[in-house]
Amino acid sequence: MFPPRMSDLLHFRKMKMLLLLILFYGSVNSDEVSKPNIIIAMADDLGIGDPGCYGNTTLRTPNIDRIAKGGVKFTQHLAASPLCTPSRAAFLTGRYPVRSGMASRSKVGVFLFSASSGGLPANEITFAKLLKNQGYSTALIGKWHLGINCNSRDDFCHHPLNHGFDHFYGLPVTNLRDCKPGSGTVFTTAIHMFVFIPLQIVGIALVTLEALNCLGLFRLPHWVFFSCLLLAATIIGLLACFLHFFRPLNCILMRNHEVVQQPMSYENLTQRLTREALKFINRNTGTPFLLFLSYIHVHTALFSAKEFVGKSKHGMYGDAVEEMDWSIGQILKALDKKKLTNKTLVYFTSDQGAHIEEVTDKGDIHGGSNGIYKGGKANNWEGGIRIPGLLRWPGVLQPGTVIDEPTSNMDFFPTIVKLAGAKLPDDRVIDGRDLMPLLQGKILQSEHEFLFHYCNAYLNAVRWHPRNSTSIWKAFFFTPKFKPDDSNGCFPTHVCFCNGHYVTRHNPPLLFDISKDPKERHPLTSKTENHFHEILRVMQEAADNHTKTLSVVPNQLSWGNLLWKPWLQLCCSSSYLSCHCDRETKGRGKGVRL
Fold this sequence. Notes:
By secondary structure, the chain is of the alpha/beta class. Helix content is about 30%, strand content about 15%. It has helices spanning about 5-35, 60-70, 85-95, 125-135, 190-215, 220-250, 270-285, 315-335, 380-385, 410-420, 435-440, 530-550, 560, 585-590; strands spanning about 35-45, 70-80, 135-145, 165-170, 255, 260, 290-295, 345-350, 385-390, 400-405, 405-410, 450-455, 460-465, 475-480, 505-515, 580. It is globular.
């Protein structure tokens, strides 16, 4: 046997080195695919008809459109709830909000006060918690709206830092008209009910009693007269206090557990949030990160920096949309600059549909467009729950892909949890489904055969996409009563409500084939659909099976949890009468360079 030649040995060593390099780079690429950076950009109340990639030709959204062009666009991406608080709870946990108690049984379906005791329970598992356990650096920048404290002003039981986020900078509650002077109030109906009506009753009673007294039919004691005046003065005084203190006590900006601006200023607010996001990215170029950029736009009160004011074709709403798009562009540029683009999954969405009823007393439209779809925020017509769903991950997701299958914002939970290498919790029901097989074309039909649409805690509708069928059935058990009758919303109450005389119940349920009638204009009957009764039977059975999986949990949005509690009030000073501070003056002074 001849000894190996020197050239053979050198060739063998080269092949060995090449094999080791292939294995090394293969493991690196595999790790990149399995543990990408995650950036979530979530708008507030943005309609599916607002971005250019969904057909809008008058609003400029080049950066949002860039995500769509470079990745996947869902056309039937659905919010688990048509309201902010329950939708965001579902998004973070991958579960219908009724499972965590984050679905109300009263008219009020969201948190309005910073000193409410309700919120996302500590035993709920968010994707941030699971990714943090996998070594991710995690941050929430922007709107939270899922509670702050439970029993004291510093227990922070519902705070983002207690739900897996390492860093928080933003609004613990939400943006409201009452937060911006001169923008009106969201409490018009409540003020009418609890102030104007009682004052009218007191006034009518006084006039009636005085008239009877003058006619000699009734002698009016002086103490009754002065008691009525005192009652009226008390009601007016309470209203004045409420309107004066609401803004500083509830419209606040926090950094982690610290209140840094009270009340918050809208001056360059989007720029400050964007800078915070860019700093977070720069700090974490060498480690996997999760950035949840939860925009304040385009929930009212509308605002934008002076560089954007008056630049759009859609007034204040359009200015706000285009400012948000600018911010997204800054994030995408940062990824390119840091060479993180191919290592980052970017997801753009909205928490629910556009708020149709947002029209000012002057007739200015402050709500967005839901495209061809009926309804909007706070109801489960398609306009209320069909939201933008864009995902970009170069090298992994095929650019320019369009998927028409029904998907849910709850699906993002299992998708990124699996990508991060974590295991899904096995001690609870997870309603979301991993999107990667659908995104990569490994399967062609959504893994959701049934989806359930809740109006607060009430099961409102069922969606059924039968296997091996193009039909998508949607059955409503009740629908909101639009006012005026020929309108597309509930304008007198500002939002649609979910029970009582505000809804019309349907027996049999109102049935649509969304695949043929996405505008929900033509309900089906036994005369127009041969399998009408069989379809409803299957959907009712699915609804019954679904409700059997629900457990009784504390109602986080009960009146007891919703109402303001002084001992939970966050205040950056020692006196509740002067809760004012501004530690953001440096950030506010800087404009934006376009």
